[in-house]
Design brief:
This protein is α+β, with helices and mostly antiparallel strands and about 400 residues long. The protein contains eleven helices and 23 strands. It folds into two domains: about 1-270 and about 355-405, no CATH class; about 295-350, no CATH class. The two termini are about 15 Å apart.
Length: about 400
């Protein structure tokens, strides 16, 4: 199924690390004093990859179908914990629904004694391309008997090019002041430019709107800049209402004239509270029900704060705020308990599954992998691997190259 290979020699890995930083824009190779690039790869059997790729494609189809239904059903949106400014805008369905969008989702898989399970879907702004593509390709060169499952950056760029044409204008919208976000867009920009696309690295408040679609805002009042053919967004949709008051952020949620990757309607399935409305959906979500552990609303009561349940914030990302008794520190656990009691509508509880660890090649360490499978327009598109010494995958987990048997 899977195994870890011995690490590279220190000199070899130092070369990989430097190339990841300078060639792949991996500008955060460590957190505090801890390196977060694993010097060993995780190997999946070909059969394991084919299995989770098929599951991810089924999940993607269900996710997008559920999103389409939720767009038309504001009464269900109320249970997702949407930020109030967004919920107000979506009280009525948008007049023009997203069309021609390029859709990328990442599903995070974990192996258990009962088979594969998922912990979440990143359907709004999944990241990890620098590691899943660039770093993993560098590691593959040192393990020639194995290959990448797919290159998610390449597949995403090809899908965007197919949508907008060879000289299309792509706006890479992100939080421009943060290197963690900038590095992702810089890496994707290179792929887009190789295909002949014109790119602009901009903040969300640099996007303007008129009756024909989106354009680049200029510093001159009432001036209309270059027309945008596609918005590639790496700025969480729930953050958009926090932009300065003169930024027309509302159009991201009400005007869908320009194709996007992803449109803000992805927020409807990004919420960890998405499972709470499954029974009210007409859309079947059988694969979701099969793979995601039981999820409930803390307000239902009767759920003890013990080791059998995991507490998750509705809009948590990269493992932030997750509470798992016996794994989360006592201080963090106490803070989470207090927050859940004060604001239960912002949380879900999920039945804990026991992820299986994989031993290091020398047998001296147990690691817990998370296999993040991308889909691009419904097709499996590669793996972002992370690995931790605990079952919770947070920002301090190591990035690990996931390779597949030839």
């Amino acid at each position: 199924m899977w195994r870890l290979l011995p690490p590279l020699a220190p000199a070899e890995f130092q070369e990989v690390r430097l190339r990841a930083i300078f060639d792949c824009f991996k500008w955060d190779p460590q957190v505090e004093d801890t390196s977060i690039l694993a010097d060993f790869p995780l190997i999946l059997s070909r059969a394991a990859w084919q299995e989770i790729a098929g599951l991810a494609e089924r999940l993607a189809a269900e996710t997008l179908a559920a999103e389409r239904e939720l767009i038309e059903r504001p009464e269900l949106q109320q249970r997702l914990g949407l930020p109030k400014p967004i919920a107000r805008l979506w009280k009525k369905p948008p007049r023009v629904l997203p069309a021609g969008d390029v859709r990328v989702i990442r599903f995070d898989f974990h192996l258990t004694a009962d088979g594969w399970r998922i912990s979440e879907a990143n359907s709004d702004v999944p990241g990890g391309y620098n590691e899943a593509s660039g770093f993993s390709l560098l590691m593959r060169d040192h393990y020639p008997d194995f290959s990448l499952s797919a290159d998610p950056a390449e597949m995403l760029a090809q899908a965007i090019c197919a949508q907008v044409g060879g000289r299309g204008v792509v706006a890479l919208v992100h939080a421009t002041a943060y290197t963690d976000d900038r590095q992702v867009m810089a890496y994707l920009e290179r792929y887009l430019q190789r295909l002949g696309l014109q790119t602009h690295m901009i903040a969300p408040d640099h996007v303007g709107w008129n009756g024909d679609g989106n354009y680049l805002r200029t510093s001159q009042k009432n001036s209309v800049g270059e027309k945008i053919d596609l918005i590639l967004r790496f700025f969480p949709a729930e953050w958009l209402p926090n932009l300065r008051s003169n930024a027309p952020w509302q159009h991201f949620f009400t005007t869908f004239l320009t194709p996007a990757c992803n449109p803000t309607t992805a927020l409807l399935t990004q919420s960890k509270r998405f499972p709470l409305i499954w029974d009210a959906l007409r859309t079947p979500v059988d694969t979701w029900r099969q793979l995601l552990p039981e999820t409930a609303d803390p307000r239902q009561g009767g759920f003890p704060m013990d080791e059998t349940w995991v507490y998750k914030p509705a809009w948590g990302r990269i493992g932030e705020g997750i509470g798992m008794r016996g794994v989360t520190s006592a201080k963090e656990w106490k803070a989470i308990q207090g927050h859940v009691k004060r604001h239960p509508e912002e949380w879900v509880i999920q039945r804990r599954f026991e992820a299986l660890p994989v031993p290091a090649a020398d047998g001296n360490q147990q690691w817990y992998p998370c296999i993040g499978v991308y889909t691009v327009n419904g097709r499996a598109a590669g793996i972002y691997g992370r690995i931790s010494t605990t079952p919770i995958i947070t920002s301090t987990a190591k990035d690990v190259a996931v390779l597949v048997e030839n």
